[in-house]
Each structure stands twice: as structure tokens, then as C-alpha cells.
């Protein structure tokens, strides 16, 4: 049961227990399978989670948050996904990219949106981008033309998390088609319901099917200077910071999925018999489980360490990238092994591990795929080549 504690404080251990109890009471297996099929967002569970303070625990108390840190948020994400990968991810991605306002927004911007997000009254949205800013990232950036009253936005953005459902979106914009990639990028808020904003549903995905996703189309959308996040031309730094913070979150989701898949494998092999004895008695099974548990423990330490670095005011982007790369890969490997161990049952929907596997694979591909993450890590460990 569990692992050696990563020097967690008593309050952090209490959060873990409270989240576990909540998930046990609220996450219903039958409902989860149905909502996965119909791509439905778990609204009621999200609102109940928000009422108990599990959404935005890392946001200061004056903005209705829990006043705690990224590590506490990580513990919640892990515990939620351990119980149910799809519900857990939808809850934790309900406030996706609200960190743009938390880290870089004005007091007015924070007060206007964050309390509603944390109270479970509003979703926030943004696109999931890759790790490597120059690998086509800015090519998919909407253009912001200067007007007398602010900017007019035009362009399309694929794979917007909570697209079509959020109260606001944090979007990067460039100054024109022939912009240099990094120097003139700005982050802006686009509120729901503005004229010229439309969405094409992209919900029918492999995994994370309770998290709404859409293609966002901006056709001459007018925004005022108040919608600028931070300073103009600071967009690239802001994206890098929030992307790295999202890697920690995705690592936590993946870690929970891996642990949940291992939990289900253990339950199965202790009950299932072959050749007159429990599968758990065969050495080949024991070694598989030992490898799964070892990989999970390794990425748990890496993920917690990355989270702590963000709380220490010295965020380690390299650690965050390593955690995302390692945890997502581990979740895919462990969930795949769980499917294998359970044989024919493994790919039947009633046993959940096939869904955990689909969600793990989706997490591996979004927010920085393995190639881009390796590029980001290599850049930081090699430094400048003369």
C-alpha cells in the first residue's frame, strides 16, 4: 500500500486522505464509463470538488484559492486519477491555463476570473502547445492587428482545452504574418461570447474524453487593452513558464493513472487462478509487478521534486520536462502491462484499465510530445554549443 513518503508534511498527508475519501464517495464506475462514451464533462462532481477546495488549491486565499502550493495541487491530481483517470483529468484541467492570470495578470484580471474558476462556476481554457517554441508553435498563432480601441484577432487554434465551454481563454498572439518568432508575442484574454469567436468540436478523441476540446476560430475579434496579460512582447516567456507548470500537472495526472492501473492489476492477480494457483504466485507475474512499482516510484519522486521547485520560487523547467517525459511514458507502459496481465478482461470496458491506457496515451502526446520534451531537456543540459 502506497510508498515511502516524500517528506510530506502532515497537512499534505491530510489533503491526500481527504481527496481519496472524496473520490471514493463521488467517482462512480458506471457513470464514468457512460460519460467516457458520450464525452460528457462531470459537472456535478467538479462543483462538489470545488466546494471542498480541491480546485485551485495553489491559488492565494484572497482569490478564493487554498493558499497552498503546486505540490499540494500535484497530490490532488495524483489521487483523483488513481481513482479514475478520466474524471480526475477533467477536474484538474477545469482550470487549465488560469495560471497565466495567477502568475502574470493584473489584480483586476485575477479578481474578474479566478474566484469563479475556483468556485466551480466557470471553466478556463487555452491550447495545449508543444515544448519546443520554434517547431511550428508560433505558426499556429492568431494575428493581433492594432486598432484604435485595442486589437483585432484573426486565426485558428487547434485543440483548445475546455473549448466552447470556458468563460475565458488565454491565447498567444503575434503582430503579423511575418513576425520574428519570439520578440513580439503577447498573451491576451478572450472572453466567452465575443463576436467573431466560434468553435468546432474535437471531443471524439482517443482518451481524456470528459475534457471538452475544440478548434477555436477567431474571425475579426475585437479586444481592449485591458485584455492584455502582463506586458506586450513578453508572451514567449509567459508561455514557457506556464507550459513548464502544466508539465508538472500532466506528470501528476500520469502518475495517478499509473498507480491506478497497478492497483487494478494487483487486485486481479490476487484473485485470478491459473493451473490451480493464483497468478500472483508466479514469478513472471511478480517481476512484472515489481517493474511497474519501481517505475512509478521513480517518477513519483521526480514529479514531487519538480512541483516543489515551483513552490520554492526557482522553477526547474528541466525537472518539469523530465517529469512529464518520464511520468507519461511510465503511465503508458504500466497501463499497457495492466491490460496484458488481465488478458481478455484487460480490453473490456468494465475493467477500466483500457480507459486508463487510452488516457495515459493521450497525456503522453499533449502539452509536449516525447520528441519536443527531449529537445527541451537536451537544450538545458548541453547549454550553448560554441
Describe this structure in words.
This protein has 386 residues and is of the alpha+beta class. It has twelve helices and ten strands. It has helices at residues 10-26, 29-38, 43-51, 70-83, 85-92, 99-104, 107-118, 235-271, 283-311, 317-341, 353-365, 370-382, and strands spanning 124-127, 143-147, 150-161, 168-173, 186-191, 197-201, 213-223, 228-229, 273-274, 277-278. Strands 1, 2, 3, 4, 5, 6, 7 and 8 form an eight-stranded mixed β-sheet that branches. Strands 9-10 form a two-stranded antiparallel sheet. A hairpin with a 2-residue loop joins strand 2 (143-147) and strand 3. Helix 8 (235-271) runs antiparallel to helix 9 (283-311), helix 9 runs antiparallel to helix 10 (317-341) and helix 10 (317-341) runs antiparallel to helix 12. The longest helix has 37 residues, at 235-271. The protein is globular and about 80 Å long. The termini are far apart. Residues 130-139 have low confidence and may be disordered.
